[in-house]
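Chapter review: from sequence to fold.
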Amino acid sequence: MAKKTITLSKHHRNLLRHLAAFSQEPETVVLERAADNYYRYIFLARVNEGYARLRQDPAAWSEMQRELGAWEATLGDGLDEDDILV
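The token string follows.
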């Protein structure tokens, strides 16, 4: 694994130490989880922005709803609930 030095403010350095102590995990693990969570946050924010733009176009939103309806039909594929692997 490549090593990289990063500079943190005193506040965030203390926060990182406290989170590591509280979670009983190394600071690197805490930073990795924080980066993963921030990535998900940004990704979902952009997805939500895309849906908001889509909703502003009635024709596009209607088409999307029709497509979702078509996918809903796949749930009725004849399998018994006990046969579905989860």
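Two observations follow directly from the output. Residues 31-71 form one domain. The chain has a mean pLDDT of 90.
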